[in-house]
């Protein structure tokens, strides 16, 4: 099939490339000329494991194309996916900013030829697909098209695997004709017995928010349980196992940490709160998860302060990991971007390392932070080390060497990578999150 992908950000590039890998003929469109020029040269603007190889393969085999020109990409397309950004609005009120979606709809309308399904891939509030339909109808009254919603559930750092082996695919359509086009696109998946949940457009749009909000609630829940564990002398790792083995609860997303971050959970929880408010309702449990997440980051600042003997003034901290999670260079809403400025403000000095995120981190973190080439350099003469993001290379640290390098052997493990008993026996003053 001929597919056009508008937007070569994270979701657009991964989805477009994976559709090409399915065997479809895919053209990815973006307004930013430099981005398209570098993609044509095989340079990928983001770090996502395996993506560069898959792009190169599909470009080489002639199924994946890049252009800035909608007139070139739209007419032949049987389906056009809109995967442009929907950031939180600049007003800071939690509403999703749909400017890019609507301008994509307006611009593609004139080029439509023959029956086309326009699919919202971006996470958008309920009702957006109908607006897209209205805009296209106004711009091109003779166009033959349907709109659909096909939310994306892939995780950064595991995007290709998540796309190729999803738990389910959700499609929201108005009629059988559009449904069939989407089913044909995903055929390679349901040959692998991936369930397709086919529903109306509004339900598909809301499903994405519900999934992300539920996961955010789950993380905030375990983070609060970690706090209670610390207070009563219980162990959250065993507790998570104890509840997670109940099939109704499930063992995933029960890892306490410094708070969730990233491009989805913070933005989508706020947007869902706004969606509910707009119709006079509320999602109080989501509001609570958002509050708990802010409090968790503040608690981490206090935890670090306490481990430094009550004040961070004049102390040097080694920070391992800056991105919001491992296997990405993404710094959006990373807990580090809240926690580190709070420490600097109170007079700490920070030496930080991240395997992939330093360039991005420089855009999000205060300029005083010193970036170093590896974990050991960060620990040299530091008054303590904070493990902020659980990159694999920090799971296999030479701990004796770290202890020798540190001025005082303080280890603050915000991802519970290490076992408290082992760390104590190695001579560290160690704390995790909610560990006994
Ligand atoms: C998420 C959703 O998982 C995905 O389905 C959606 O499409 C986009 O948002 P992503 O943001 O890439 O994906 O990362 P994810 O692995 O879900 O982690 C999000 C945040 O939660 C990270 O900051 C991570 O560190 C944190 N997290 C996750 C925890 O603190 N504990 C956990 O148990 C799991």
UniProtKB/TrEMBL annotation:
One GO molecular-function entry: UDP-glucose 6-dehydrogenase activity
Gene3D superfamilies, from UniProt? Answer: Cytochrome c1, transmembrane anchor, C-terminal, NAD(P)-binding Rossmann-like Domain
Annotated UDP-glucose/GDP-mannose dehydrogenase C-terminal domain ranges read 318-420
Key word Oxidoreductase present: yes
- Per the UniProt record, which EC number(s) apply here? 1.1.1.22
Q: Which organism is it from?
A: Desulfolithobacter dissulfuricans
Write down the PANTHER family for this protein, in alphabetical order: UDP-GLUCOSE 6-DEHYDROGENASE TUAD
Which SUPFAM superfamilies does the record match to this protein? 6-phosphogluconate dehydrogenase C-terminal domain-like, NAD(P)-binding Rossmann-fold domains, UDP-glucose/GDP-mannose dehydrogenase C-terminal domain
Alphabetically sorted, this entry's keywords are: NAD, Oxidoreductase
Q: What class of enzyme is it?
A: oxidoreductase
State what protein this is by name. UDP-glucose 6-dehydrogenase
**Catalytic reaction equation(s):** UDP-alpha-D-glucose + 2 NAD(+) + H2O = UDP-alpha-D-glucuronate + 2 NADH + 3 H(+)
Q: Which residues make up the binding site for substrate? A: 153-156, 208, 253-257, 261, 325
The active site annotation covers: 264
GO biological process: what's one of them? polysaccharide biosynthetic process
User: Quick check: keyword NAD in the entry?
Assistant: yes
The beginning of the lineage is: Bacteria, Pseudomonadati, Thermodesulfobacteriota, Desulfobulbia, Desulfobulbales
Superkingdom per UniProt: Bacteria
Which residues participate in NAD(+) binding? 30, 35, 86, 123, 156, 267, 332
Q: Which family does it belong to?
A: Belongs to the UDP-glucose/GDP-mannose dehydrogenase family.
- Secretion signal, residue range per the UniProt entry: none
The protein's matches in Pfam families, at most eight in alphabetical order, are given as: UDPG_MGDP_dh, UDPG_MGDP_dh_C, UDPG_MGDP_dh_N
Associated pathway: Nucleotide-sugar biosynthesis; UDP-alpha-D-glucuronate biosynthesis; UDP-alpha-D-glucuronate from UDP-alpha-D-glucose: step 1/1
Q: InterPro entries of this UniProt entry?
A: 6-PGluconate_DH-like_C_sf (IPR008927), NAD(P)-bd_dom_sf (IPR036291), UDP-Glc/GDP-Man (IPR017476), UDP-Glc/GDP-Man_DH_C (IPR014027), UDP-Glc/GDP-Man_DH_C_sf (IPR036220), UDP-Glc/GDP-Man_DH_dimer (IPR014026), UDP-Glc/GDP-Man_DH_N (IPR001732), UDPglc_DH_bac (IPR028357)
């Amino acid at each position: 099939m001929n597919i056009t992908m508008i937007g070569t950000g994270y979701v657009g590039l991964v989805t477009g490339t994976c559709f090409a890998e399915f065997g479809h003929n895919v053209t990815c469109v973006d307004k930013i000329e430099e981005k398209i020029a570098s993609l044509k040269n095989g340079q990928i603007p983001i770090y996502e494991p395996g993506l560069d190889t898959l792009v190169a393969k599909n470009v080489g085999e002639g199924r994946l194309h890049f252009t800035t020109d909608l007139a070139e990409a739209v007419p032949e397309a049987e389906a056009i996916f809109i995967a442009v950004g929907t950031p939180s609005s600049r007003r800071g009120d939690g509403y999703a900013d749909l400017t890019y979606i609507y301008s994509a709809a307006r611009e593609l309308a004139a080029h439509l030829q023959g029956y086309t399904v326009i699919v919202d891939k971006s996470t958008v509030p309920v009702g957006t697909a109908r607006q897209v339909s209205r805009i296209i109808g106004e711009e091109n009254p003779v166009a033959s098209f349907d709109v659909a919603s096909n939310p994306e559930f892939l995780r950064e750092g595991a995007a290709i695997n998540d796309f190729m082996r999803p738990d389910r695919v959700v499609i929201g359509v108005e009629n059988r004709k559009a449904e069939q086009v989407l089913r044909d696109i995903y055929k390679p998946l349901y040959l692998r017995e991936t369930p397709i949940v086919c529903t109306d457009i509004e339900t598909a749009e809301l499903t994405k928010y519900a999934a992300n909000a539920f996961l955010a609630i789950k993380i905030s829940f375990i983070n609060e349980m970690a706090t209670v564990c610390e207070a009563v002398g219980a162990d959250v790792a065993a507790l998570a196992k104890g509840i997670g083995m109940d099939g109704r609860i499930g063992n995933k997303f029960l890892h306490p940490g410094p708070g969730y971050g990233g491009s989805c959970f913070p933005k989508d929880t706020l947007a869902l709160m706004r969606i509910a408010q707009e119709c006079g309702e509320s999602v109080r449990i989501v509001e609570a998860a958002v509050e708990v997440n802010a409090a968790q980051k503040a608690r981490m600042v206090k935890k670090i302060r306490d481990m430094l003997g009550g004040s961070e003034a004049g102390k040097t901290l080694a920070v391992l990991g800056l991105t919001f999670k491992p296997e990405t260079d993404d710094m959006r809403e990373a807990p580090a971007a809240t926690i580190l400025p709070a420490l600097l403000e109170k007079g700490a000095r920070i030496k930080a390392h991240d395997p992939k995120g330093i360039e991005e981190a420089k855009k999000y973190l205060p300029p005083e932070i010193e970036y170093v080439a590896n974990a050991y350099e960060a620990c040299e003469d530091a008054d303590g080390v904070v493990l902020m993001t659980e990159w694999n290379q920090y799971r296999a640290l030479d701990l004796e060497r770290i202890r020798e390098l540190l001025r005082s052997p303080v280890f603050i493990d915000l991802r519970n990578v290490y076992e408290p008993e082992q760390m104590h026996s190695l001579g560290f003053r160690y704390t995790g999150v909610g560990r006994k």
